[in-house]
Amino acid sequence: MLDSLFRPKSVAVIGASTKDLSIGNRIVKNLIDFGFKGSIYPISLKADEILGVQAYKSILDVPGDVDVVHMVIRSKFVPQAIDDCGEKGVKFVILNGGGFAEVGPEGAAIQEDCLSRAKTHGIRILGPNCQGIINTDPDVRAYCNFTFTKPDPGSISIVALSGGVAEAIHQAFAEMGIGTRMYASNGNACDVTIPEILRYYGDDQGTRVIVLYVEGLRDPETFLKVAREVAAKKPILAMKAGRTEEGAKAAASHTGGLAKEDLATDLIFEKTGILSFTDEEELCQAAVAFSSQPIPKGNRVGMITNTGGPAVIATDVLINAGLIIPPLSEKAKAVLREKLFPEASVGNPIDVLATAGAEQFRAAIDIVMEEDQIDSVYLNFVTPFFVDAESIAREIVEVNKERRKPIICNLMTDKRQWVGTVETLKQGGVPYYSFPSTAAKVLTALTKYSEIRVRDIGQVRRFDDVDREKAEYVLRKVKEAGRELLSATDVYGILDAYGIPAADWRIAADAAEAVEAAAEIDFPVVVKADAETIVHKSDVAGVVVDLWDSDSVQAVVEEMEERLEVKDLKFLIQKYLSGGKEVIIGAKAEEGLGHLVMFGIGGIYVEIMKDVIFKLTPVTKVEAQEMISSLRAAPLLEGVRGEKGIHQEGIIELIQRVSQLVSDWPTIQELDLNPIIAYKDKVFVVDARISVSNSYSGER
Amino acid sequence: MLDSLFRPKSVAVIGASTKDLSIGNRIVKNLIDFGFKGSIYPISLKADEILGVQAYKSILDVPGDVDVVHMVIRSKFVPQAIDDCGEKGVKFVILNGGGFAEVGPEGAAIQEDCLSRAKTHGIRILGPNCQGIINTDPDVRAYCNFTFTKPDPGSISIVALSGGVAEAIHQAFAEMGIGTRMYASNGNACDVTIPEILRYYGDDQGTRVIVLYVEGLRDPETFLKVAREVAAKKPILAMKAGRTEEGAKAAASHTGGLAKEDLATDLIFEKTGILSFTDEEELCQAAVAFSSQPIPKGNRVGMITNTGGPAVIATDVLINAGLIIPPLSEKAKAVLREKLFPEASVGNPIDVLATAGAEQFRAAIDIVMEEDQIDSVYLNFVTPFFVDAESIAREIVEVNKERRKPIICNLMTDKRQWVGTVETLKQGGVPYYSFPSTAAKVLTALTKYSEIRVRDIGQVRRFDDVDREKAEYVLRKVKEAGRELLSATDVYGILDAYGIPAADWRIAADAAEAVEAAAEIDFPVVVKADAETIVHKSDVAGVVVDLWDSDSVQAVVEEMEERLEVKDLKFLIQKYLSGGKEVIIGAKAEEGLGHLVMFGIGGIYVEIMKDVIFKLTPVTKVEAQEMISSLRAAPLLEGVRGEKGIHQEGIIELIQRVSQLVSDWPTIQELDLNPIIAYKDKVFVVDARISVSNSYSGER
Q1: Using a CB-CB distance cutoff of 8 angstroms, which residues of chain B are in contact with residue A438?
Q2: For the domain that residue B248 is a member of, what is the CATH number?
Q3: Cis-peptide into A524, omega within 30 deg
Q4: Cα(A665)–Cα(A491) distance, rounded to whole angstroms?
Q5: Under the phi-then-psi rule, with left for phi > 0, alpha for psi from -120 to 50, and beta for the rest, what region is A11?
């Protein structure tokens, strides 16, 4: 539990200083200035008193208990100081200074040393190389941080590894006049992690919205678990940066090459219900609304405006984002015709006219609140000098108090002149923005979250007809042989074990067996050379398709035997399927996260159009359906231009079986079912590759 | 010329009032408060004096000349007042009030009356139903407007029909502390148009940047012409709203259905070199940088940062937008190693560290300014309390004065505390923003403009081998017959006249002629039923392909003759082409703009993937090349997966010939060459449709 970190009763500063522009001085000053409710203990060898607070020579001299200790001393002195803290019974150490893992191996060793000593003492570390925390709770007022933005109390909590970005976000809220609840930036994060802080914010009653910034996930498995729990309780608005770095690190394999570096993070966000942003400013603007407004029940907006153009812009943004602006009921229109000015427009948007006063605005808002087919309210509010804008603002605030539907306001005014109007909205908790697009994007974010929140991806289906032992036998054999790429026999054996339908096949050692196999399978058949050393069969002309008689099969096999100088050469004889549509299912292991599963349509759709969808395992039926329906080329699978559609249920089941297969066997690094031939009523894998990791250590 | 409107020497207000919250009072007050350098003449039947200024009973009583007259009287009194103004020799009338075309036919009649009287008197009208103009030129100080935002002098000029949006933009600049030059909102725009105002801003020495907001273009032809001239002189940053309205107004035809409502405006922006935005806030943020910074020579950014995370975010944004962050030269690195702190990172980004002072920042900026491979400077500037941020700001300003390369600054600070730093940057004309993404987007806009500016779309090629007389003969015949859809003979005749290659074809009246034609063309052939009444041949089974002998041709023709009960039934016998790739070229008339020309790849690429590119006529070779290379599926045309590429030069020429054809004959409403079979070395149209307007009145 991080209670003692975020709600400390006492804070000591080892390395406290009388020097004005030093961090050791600033932390003491920040605690004092912010009105910290607990005890402050500056620790200094030189000074008896710092900023009027009694100082001590050693942490051991401090009279009372100490919850949190800041260390603002050189890294090499930190391990000893941690031992002192251990003796004192300190609960948390915040290592503000640098000189640890971020500077190289020597620093990393010190960091390691600190961590192991802290563990011995039961001390938790925040940092090193970090800003620290802030808690604005009036009962706490902890500013354990050397930065300079002094927030008002609020309900947004911020967490980030990067102090720079966290601070920029923090400043943005301060400038918007929006308070924050808690703040944490944990730098090198050698001990206290982002998921721990997330969970703490999740449990904190005072936190309504969590803002998260990450550049990468250290422990995606834990993050996934915690984020899912927390996001179920309150909105997490997140941004991931570092999206273009190492974008060229494309893996050699098909699936790997298509999976972008940051895809896994996006998928975790999606799977856990985190609302993802790519722009910090938009994130901050949205967070303000999340902190004060209820979540809309749906995507239907009522728009009220007292000026034309901005309504056009807002409509564009909302409609483009998939929101709708439904017509008003006849009853509502009748009421508005009575209460608004004669020239007012009583559609949706409702144009109350620039001359509208508080009474007209109120009538329009009341109507929109009452209309069943409307979930949220978008207000364009320009302040002509000839109306009493402040009284309009008061009416908006009055309705906003009821928290029936979210209200987002585009306030177009000169904030230096219309001070009372601005202040009324701010105090009344009505989020207001300076541009129609901005306000509309915020409403879009609220609405998107409402969709994420209700989205039910369903349960994971476990197929109990699978033959785990058979799969295990194959994989153990592969491991024992020290191989990474599975032979055709292995691959089709595993597919068979997991109920994944493949075109009928046999393995033949020579031409005679091949002819026999072909007869069993029935013509036409395809002959594929199969040997461990052949990775890409088509590169060595090891595939011949559409063979219609025994003579052809015999000739092909004999020719390959002669030409391909490969030991252990065998032949895969397989039913040759034609017609149907080619689709691809792939999977790729993702450290700490299970696997990414991919679906796409064969040929140019994957290779040229990059039209593929990924999901994280385990993939549910709902997710598998989404994988199909989210493709740009999805209509092709439903049958267009006279072509038949494909057996979507079959593909959905196949995706789920692949998900179960790779989940059961984490040793599987990559799996490519490419192509799968999908007909109207059935699907067959006709080519497949599986590679495993040699460091495989058993089933999960 | 609009000089008397934007630089009036005297302004009268008909309908001036002593009533505080009236528009007739406010305009007089605004003129006074803003320090108008000319004479102010309130015209009022009731008052002798308004706000201390002598009032007159009639405009005819005013002693001096009057350049501009505001009319703040009911619309029905306006026509007479315009006559009075005519007698007085007034140059411009600003009609602030409503009650004109926007309220219906009666108002429209009044507007028409006003306009015709004004024309008689040589008076120009701004509005009606408009805000008016502002000019901050210290020699003028004209606030001929009833709004409330009082701008400082600056170099950004704003023009918009919508007063609401113009005002929101105006307020944004004011809030950012950025001055503006001129402002105009012309409401119903019955006389003075957006293009006229654009041209005036283009000629105005004090205007460096033009901000334009439109919801639609009244006279796209003039707009195109003027925008091209003005954009060549100075940046025009524009936004078009109303993008989703009537999106369902999809035309019945293929090309028409794909062309979105607002596509033409986007294409005009592209063709004229206007920088297009979809978000007002981003537009305003960019305008600030355009007003003070030079345009970068290229897309290579030097990034300087004193904090890590924000550099990651900025890198993401810049790289995603196609900018590059090139390595520094060895020489530069050596200098930086000497001048920066030892732990600083001397790559690009240059991390000068949070402890960097003015000296370190200056060293980094100087290096980036000198590096030949860098075109612009992105600064992340956080203000730790332990550095002298103001002196850093002074160094930035110092370098900025030289205007060698644009500098964009992400300033992360508490603006309420770091007042001096903020003020230094502002006074020094360094554009600063509160978020890394925001600053990076602004730099992206500057860079994009630099690319637009140097983009040479080349000259229009006129093919002189075309047979205009033949085309004219066909079109005249069609017109005389009152037809809108051309027969196959007509269509192929026109294609032939314009040197557009089609698969060899003949028209046959009966089976005997068909057999003869097929023999001439050589098998295989396709037989298509051809008659005026058959719009979609395939709907009536009027197309049979791949016929290899005379008997088949005869049988097919006889079967169709019997089955299709159509008068004037003829048969198009055409060479049957197979293999090759199907592509589509289309054209659609666009009122006042010539035609939209479309290119796409046949089949699902157009219909399902919506992968098509449009350009406005006349299409140059460069534009035709862009049409091919901009397709998502472009690699297909270069040959992938063992397929051959297509004859791109042939397609490029074909697009240009189509462009010339439809430009020569504006009567052509729609043209569809679908499909065109493209081989490696040649291209052939194998099916084509052309429709014309019956209101055709001759060649252009």
Answers
A1: 279-281
A2: 3.40.50.261
A3: yes
A4: 13
A5: beta
Beta-carbon separation of A320 and B243 below 8 A: yes
Q: Domain containing B663: what range?
A: 461-500+579-700
pLDDT tens string A569-583: 889 999 999 888 899
Co-location of A221 and A309 in the same domain: no
Q: How far is A476 from chain B (nearest CA, A)?
A: 37
Contacts of B287 in chain A (CB under 8 A): none
- Say whether pLDDT at B31 is over 90: yes
Determine the residue among B313, B355, B417 to mutate to test chain A binding: the one whose Cβ has the most chain A Cβ atoms within 10 Å.
B313
- Residue among A344, A414, A354 nearest A380 (CA): A354
- Residue A639 has a pLDDT of 75
- Residue A298 amino acid letter: G
**A171 closest CB neighbour out of B316, B434, B607:** B434
Q: How many domains does chain B have?
A: 5
The CATH number of the domain holding residue B528 is 3.30.1490.20
If you measure CA to CA, which chain A residue comes closest to B324?
A244
Query: In this structure, is residue A462 part of a structural domain?
Result: no
Q: Is the pLDDT of residue A480 over 50?
A: yes
Enumerate residues 6+ apart whose C-beta is below 8 A from A649: none
Of B329, B306, B470, B486, nearest in space to B393 by CA:
B306
pLDDT value at position A92?
98
Q: Are residues B166 and B102 in the same domain?
A: no
Residues B203-236 as b or e (16 or more Cβ within 10 Å = b): ebeebbbbbbbbbebeebebbbebbeebbeebbb
Is A638 within 8 Å of chain B by CB? no
Q: Is residue B253 over pLDDT 70?
A: no
Q: What is the ipTM of this complex?
A: 0.86
CA distance A558 to B442: 67
Name the phi and psi angles at B644, rounded to 5.
-80, 155
Cβ <8 Å between A280 and B319: no
User: With b meaning 16 or more CB within 10 Å and e meaning fewer, what string describes A369-394?
Assistant: eebeebbbbbbbbbbbbbbebbbbbb
Nearest CB among B280, B319, B415 relative to A436 is that of B280
Please, are residues A289 and A442 in contact by the beta-carbon 8 Å criterion?
yes
What single string gives the DSSP state of each residue in B515-566? HHHHHHH-SSEEEEEE-TT-S-GGGGT-EEEEE-SHHHHHHHHHHHHHH---
> Does residue A381 sit within a domain?
yes
Residue at which a domain ends, from B258, B292, B326 = B292
pLDDT digits (tens, 9 = 90+) for A399-444: 999 999 999 999 999 888 999 999 999 999 999 999 999 999 999 9
**What are A498-557's pLDDT values in tens digits?**
999 999 999 999 999 999 999 999 999 999 988 777 766 666 778 898 999 999 999 999
Answer whether residue A699 is part of any domain.
no
pLDDT of residue A665: 94
**In Å, how far is B515's CA from the nearest CA of chain A?**
31
Alpha-carbon distance A321 to nearest alpha carbon in chain B (angstroms): 11
User: Sorting pLDDT into bands at 50, 70 and 90, what band is B695?
Assistant: low
Residue A101: DSSP 8-state: G
Whether B23 has its CB under 8 Å from any CB of chain A: the answer is: yes
- In sequence order, what DSSP letters do the residues of A384-404 get, joined into one string? -TTS-HHHHHHHHHHHHHT-S
Q: Which of A214-218, A270-274, A555-559, B653-657 comes out lowest in average pLDDT?
A: A214-218
Which of B548, B576, B604 delimits the end of a domain? Answer: B576
Assigned domain for A406 exists: yes
